[in-house]
Amino acid sequence: MRTFLMAFLMALGIAALTTSPVLHLARWLRLFDQPDGVRKIHVNAIPRLGGIALAAGYLSPLVALLFYTNTFANELRGHDTRLHAFFIGALAILGLGIYDDIRGCGAWAKLGVQSSVALLLWFVGLRFDSFSLFGTAYDLGLLSLPITILWVCGIVNAMNLIDGLDGLAAGVAVFASLALFLIALMDGNLILGLFAAVLGGASLGFLLYNFSPALIFMGDSGSMGIGYMFAVASLWTVSKRSTALALLLPVLALGLPIVDTFLAFGRRAVRGKSPFHSDREHIHHRLLDLGLSPRLTVLVLYLICAALTAIAVALRAWVI
Q: What domain range includes position 181?
């Protein structure tokens, strides 16, 4: 528990301390997210690139652990190939997000990079291979690769799509991290607990600057990076509990962005549009259209995330 706490506090502190200089850097480079009065409803131009501070927060404790000798460090170093692939993927996703925040990047180009990262993870064993249902094991076989790619790309883009209001994506990440951390404690799963601790800490540290009224946005570098971390945490630990219900737990923890993404892709498919076509019909947009203020909308969605956290933890405690 001490290592979890130290990792959480280190992630929180580094994210909070580095957000301010990143904010000034974005202002100096004039990298602002401009309001459009439709999808982007903030009043003033807000600096982006906050994903750099988030990444510093959640990656630093993992790097620091490699210089220690304890159970957590041994667990990480015991999977050197996976660890190298994880860091390569994290830097690739972060770099993709920074490029998109600065220059802009097409949806299909982003999907290509995300799929390549997912392929690397699959190659080193971070993948869905099988699951069991009612005591019967099912080998995914050739479906393992597309399902793994779908999971990584899906979670990365789900967090990106939910990032539409001040503090929303960061708050969702905090609640999802809490759910996965409590589940990890019940399972005795060190890696899942560690990932959840650093993600929760970094997201909370960044939220100090990002909650309404936001001083800085996380940008694609932040939302995609958080999504990548959640995706990898699930893949790294899936072999420890591969029952169908256990696989459902991370889906529940990330229920809000996942449902929002399914609805978005579904309505765009029905209308014959690209799944990456932007619109103003996300869950948070619909709540705004009902007359809720942006801050109240975020708080309502936090409440939904809290309920999903409780459901996921209760399922692990009472059913699985």
A: 2-31+40-318
